[in-house]
Amino acid sequence: MKKMVVLSFVAFAFGTGALAQSIDNPAENASLDNGFVRVGEIQSIGRNNVGAASFLFPSGDKLVTGLHSSISNEEFLGGLKSVNSLYSQMDYNLVSYGWKGRTRGFHTLEVGAKVNYGLSVPEEIFQILKTGTAHSPYDLSSLRAFGNVYGEIAYGYSLPLSDNFSIGGRAKLLVGLNSVDVITRRFNLTTTEEQYILNLDADIDLTNRNKNVGTDGNGCLDYTSFSGKGKLGAPTGGGIALDLGLVWKPFDGFSLSASVLDLGGILWYYGNAGTSSGSYTFEGLKDLTTEEMEQDKIRTKLKEKGEDVLAVMKPKAVDGRFKYKAIPSSANMKASYAMPFWKNLFLDVSGLYTGYSFCAPYWEARGGMSLDFPGFAHLGLSAGGGAYGFVYRVNGSAEFQSFRLYAAYENGIAGVIPYEDIPLKANNKTLLIGLIYLIK
Amino acid sequence: MKKCSILIALPLLWSCANMDYDISKGIDNEYTLFSDEISVPVGDIGPVSLGILLDGTGFRETINEYVKEDEDGFLVVEKEDNVYQNFVMFFSMMLPDPSLPVDFPVGSCSKSIETMASALTDIGVSLTRQSLSLYGTNPLTEDISISGKLSLMSEAGDETPAIVLASEEFSQVPVSAEAQKGDLLQVVRPNEKAFYECELENLMLHLPGSLMEKDPLSGLGVISLGYQYKSYLSLGNDFSLPFSFTIDNINLQLGQYKVKEATICTDVSNEIPFTLTVDSVEMLVAKTLEDGTTASEVYENVGITPGLVIASGSKGHPTLSPLEIVIGAREGTIPDISGLRINFTIGPPTGEGDTRIGLNQNVFFNNLRATVSGGITIQGL
């Protein structure tokens, strides 16, 4: 299904031309003469600094995993990063309304929601699984998992300060809906012949103040037990964020736009908070008598040891707590130059930097060209490189009467798993699609 | 137009799909973990007492009829017997004037110490800390005293005469009235030939006057001299006894994991005054017999390199010896293990220390750890 969406979109992008539409830089609205209503814009961002090819390897007519005996340690581990992360984000703009003010400014009001989730796994975990325990000690503290759902209510204002310079800003009220966060401040594993030492200090936090996770007899969170009625959508956090931007057109045909988006964060209230803290030393089964050297008795003793480990690892319920989490913020810059011999053809250069509070930043720089036929269509193509290697982007829009349909697709070219659309290499994939009604 | 768009787009998408990664052909679900090596602390096994080690070796049954355990758990040979005895009435009749105190000369007497010590020494067990306590029995209502000379002799051989192992005199040692066992003399020798004969010379009973007047019935009593013999056991210098120690019912399902080599290391803490030499370690696998029952048999296709020698120790002063056993498959991988049989040779103790054997002396396998090299293969996760 996902592939079909991509296919349809690319066909659309190549088959039509339409007016460019930038939705990120709030200053770009300053040039609009009339208002608009935007409905149902969806942007999907998927970023992974390793791909499926780091874990799957062709072998004959089948695939084997990196843990297969035919795959050498260097082959498998050499393709991994020190921290292997997967990040997904879905932005949904429910509705936006923009209108020209009585003065020169342009106002926007937007309501939307964002979902993001991610997972970071340290290479050491795969190193232990692949090679064993000879490279101790291991620092696994980059293990991280999170997921956030929050709503945005934004008011934007953009203002042309002169004929060639505009600024804009957008203030956002962030309403936290749900969040789960697993963060390990300390997760060390030392393995020697004589003992395994586990040292853990981690928080496992889950919002939702109306539905509580139960506890077991030891005061640990029991995720199979809930009490209270959960209210989907009940706020569990709040915050603010700002978008700032400018557009400068120093001479005819050239424009420079820059923006900083999502500067801010959310103060979450984690009603179901747990902390795993402590250390455990495993030195084997102590004081085994010859009578106990039987499988069942050994299994019983091992089970007891397993429970001891769980006692350290299982999160103990603590009082609900507030935590501030910055939302992913990005900085964008784009320069565009219209060819003097054909004003509909533009050369573009753009850059993007996104910072995360929970994983490595993403950046990219691209160059390309675009065709712009105002009132009819826009088509852009660009390519460049970034944190995950080569990346290309196609974007376009088509305008029919008062409706403008726009879309953009960005991806790397390292290939995907057939029929599954799972990238084989580190990849950034962005899909944007939206519809605007232009008030004329 | 639409068809044209799709036709243009298709090659672009298809060129991005790497058919080498076609998941629909399946993913091999074999996983080999820890391909370099993984070391796991296994723990400590023990105490394993000498009694448990000797169970099933036949050694314990062999010596059981000769020796017993004393209150401290040491194996001992014990013997008690009279050397001389006579009725009080006899002395009364023999004395010219029974009303006067008298030194009654008994002369000499001897008694064989008929223990099975020699049988034990024949199988390499040596006697250590032999002791012989000479005591007197006094049925009278008055104290008596006894003098004499005690000599302990070894057994004479066909061509070798008996030798005197100990010779001590005692003079007028009092034996209190009505004493059943009044101590006269104790002889202790650390490590010598077995006491075989006990001989008393110049034995003199120092008797009070009017032996029977104060207690006419004491005339039926017996004045006697006896001995209590006790000897601990240790292994002689020539002792050598092979035996096997089997750990059964382990049932390690290793076969499915395709393990090629495993090394087991431990620090052996030994307080048994035996030197244990590991001759071989055999891997046992379960075999189904014709009648449907299962039995263990030695699996030959595995090479096991045994460790070295476990040094002898003593109670309270254990010795530490590292032990390493390498289990490697000669071909293929190590199968399911039902048990291990460790073949030892028991040898005499070395070095200083208490060499007495006790069934409650223990050996500990401390800090047991296992290292698996070459990976552990599993099917499916």
Structure description:
- The complex is a heterodimer of chains A (about 450) and B (about 375).
- Chain A is mostly beta strands and about 450 residues long.
- Chain A has a single domain (about 1-285, about 320-440), classed as Lipocalin (Beta Barrel), CATH 2.40.128.130.
- In chain A, about 10% of the residues lie in helices and about 60% in strands.
- Chain A has a 14-stranded antiparallel beta barrel with strand order 1-4-5-7-8-12-13-18-19-20-21-22-23-24. A two-stranded antiparallel sheet of chain A has the order 2-3.
- The longest helix of chain A has 19 residues, at about 295-315.
- With about 375 residues, chain B is mainly β.
- Chain B folds into 2 domains: about 30-60 and about 240-380, no CATH class; about 75-235.
- Helices cover about 10% and strands about 50% of the residues of chain B.
- Chain B is built from 5 helices and 21 strands.
- In chain B, the strands form 5 sheets. A 5-stranded antiparallel sheet of chain B has the order 2-20-13-18-16. A 5-stranded antiparallel sheet of chain B has the order 3-4-11-6-9.
- The model of chain B is unreliable at about 1-15 (pLDDT under 50).
- The chains are: A mainly beta (about 450), B mainly beta (about 375).
- At the A-B interface, helix 1, strand 2, strand 3, helix 3 and strand 15 of A face helix 1, strand 1, strand 2 and strand 20 of B.
Largest sheet of chain A: 14 strands, antiparallel, barrel
Report the mean per-residue pLDDT of chain A as an integer.
88
Under CATH, the topology of chain A can be stated as Lipocalin
Give the helix proportion of chain B (percent range).
10-25%
Radius of gyration of chain A: 26 Å
SS-based class of chain A: mainly beta
Unreliable runs of chain A, pLDDT <50, ≥5 residues? 1-22
| SSE pattern of chain A, N- to C-terminal | HEEEHEEHEEEEEEEEEEHEEEEEEEEE
Q: Helicity of chain A, in percent?
A: 10-25%
Question: Please, how many helices of chain A?
Answer: 4
The number of strands of chain A is: 24
- Radius of gyration of chain B equals 37 Å
* Percentage beta strand of chain B: over 45%
Mean pLDDT over the residues of chain B = 84
Ends distance of chain B: 49 Å
Task: Give the overall shape of chain A.
Answer: globular
What is the number of helical segments of chain B per DSSP (H or I, 4+ residues)? Answer: 5
Unreliable parts of chain B: 1-15
